[in-house]
């Protein structure tokens, strides 16, 4: 790809790891698969876990390390955008798997690699027919199956692979990757905005890169520093001070005022009830409460959340939230020694 094309790529692609060194926050997995390759004993692999944690990047980087310039001939990559019904499995995968590479150098391995990305979206008929193909062509092929949810895969398919779960990437690993991008793209971002970005990404590196790029685009060519408000606005997450204001009103004001305050924030700042619940729970976790009481309000709020997901009436659900939290505080005041912030 020419330099100009690379410059125009979205950052998630521009900064996709080129080799295993650049895969951050998945050290155990990277070390293990590397050892497999060094000893020449690569099993069939299954990578699963939440989005943006490096599954596709790791296998592509691994394939590049194994095959070097021969990468294109030795690897078949199929993802959800390709048709992967039973016919493709029968024909395309079979014909790729059944041919042996004649001109292999001594250093390059004899086996080919078939990457099935987003395999949880494959039909069950296609997954079923894969089982036999995997066994039949193990001599000259290795399969790597990538998925978000392992429970959507055929158990017999899973049992043919060595499983690796990609966990959400820890904040420090995202920070070191993002810092790299910040320097290379000359992004000006305030330290608290960077912390908020890492926290809100929730272990999804793709999300953090996308948000950073959107914020950088919003500043344009002006010398503007990316601040915490821009991060919240871009992610569409409610600002912590809004959540605190709502919770304070529930804790301190009478019922009607609390209801009106909640409504005001919902309409003016576009807060969603579900986000409010998540925010309240995060703050209330730092309160010292009687465990029974905590279970009680958590159960209540989770019921409300379920009600909202089923299309429950917004007014009734917000009243319920106020009621649950107020009741918890009343129990607490009448029971074990009141509440105190940690
Ligand atoms: N562990 C990581 N180290 C470095 N960059 C990463 C990592 N994980 C994700 N990224 C960045 O995020 C982008 C998306 O990652 P990738 O495609 O590997 O995610 P994925 O786990 O396959 O997600 P999905 O389940 O949605 O397919 C990459 O292009 C890369 O820029
Ligand atoms: Mg992927």
From TrEMBL:
Residues 41-172 form the AAA+ ATPase domain. Keywords: ATP-binding, DNA replication, Nucleotide-binding, Nucleus. GO terms for cellular component: Ctf18 RFC-like complex; DNA replication factor C complex; Elg1 RFC-like complex; Rad17 RFC-like complex. GO terms for molecular function: ATP binding; ATP hydrolysis activity; DNA binding; DNA clamp loader activity. Gene3D superfamilies: 1.10.8.60, 1.20.272.10, P-loop containing nucleotide triphosphate hydrolases. One of its GO terms (biological process) is DNA strand elongation involved in DNA replication. Coiled coil: none annotated. It comes from the Eukaryota. It is found in: Nucleus. Belongs to the activator 1 small subunits family. PANTHER family: REPLICATION FACTOR C / DNA POLYMERASE III GAMMA-TAU SUBUNIT, REPLICATION FACTOR C SUBUNIT 5. NCBIfam families: PRK00440.1. This is Replication factor C subunit 3.
């Amino acid at each position: 790809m020419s330099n100009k094309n690379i410059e125009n790529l979205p950052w998630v692609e521009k900064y996709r790891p080129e080799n295993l060194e650049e895969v951050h926050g998945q050290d155990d997995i990277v070390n293990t698969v590397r050892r497999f390759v060094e000893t020449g004993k690569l099993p069939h692999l299954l990578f699963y876990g939440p989005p943006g944690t490096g599954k596709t990047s790791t296998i592509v980087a691994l394939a590049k390390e194994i095959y070097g310039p021969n990468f294109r001939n030795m690897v078949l990559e199929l993802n959800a955008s390709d048709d992967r019904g039973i016919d493709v499995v029968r024909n395309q995968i079979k014909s790729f798997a059944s041919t042996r590479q004649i001109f292999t150098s001594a250093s390059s391995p004899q086996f080919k690699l078939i990457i099935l990305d987003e395999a949880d979206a494959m039909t069950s008929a296609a997954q079923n027919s894969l089982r036999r193909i995997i066994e039949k062509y193990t001599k000259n092929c290795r399969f790597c199956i990538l998925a978000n949810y392992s429970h959507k895969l055929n158990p017999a398919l899973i049992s043919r692979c060595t499983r690796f779960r990609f966990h959400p990437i820890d904040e420090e690993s995202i920070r070191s990757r993002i810092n790299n991008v910040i320097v290379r793209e000359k992004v000006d971002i305030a330290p608290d905005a960077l912390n908020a970005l890492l926290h809100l990404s929730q272990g999804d590196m793709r999300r953090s890169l996308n948000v950073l790029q959107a914020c950088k685009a919003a500043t344009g060519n002006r010398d503007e520093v990316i601040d915490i408000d821009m991060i919240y606005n871009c992610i569409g997450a409610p600002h912590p001070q809004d959540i605190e204001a709502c919770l304070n009103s529930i804790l301190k004001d009478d019922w009607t005022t609390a209801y009106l305050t909640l409504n005001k924030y919902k309409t003016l700042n576009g807060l969603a009830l579900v986000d409010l619940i998540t925010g309240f729970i995060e703050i209330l976790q730092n309160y010292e409460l009687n465990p029974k009481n905590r279970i009680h309000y958590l159960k209540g709020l989770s019921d409300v959340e379920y009600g909202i997901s089923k299309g429950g009436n917004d007014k009734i659900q917000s009243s319920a939230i106020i009621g649950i939290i107020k009741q918890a505080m009343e129990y607490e005041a009448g029971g074990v020694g009141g509440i105190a912030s940690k």
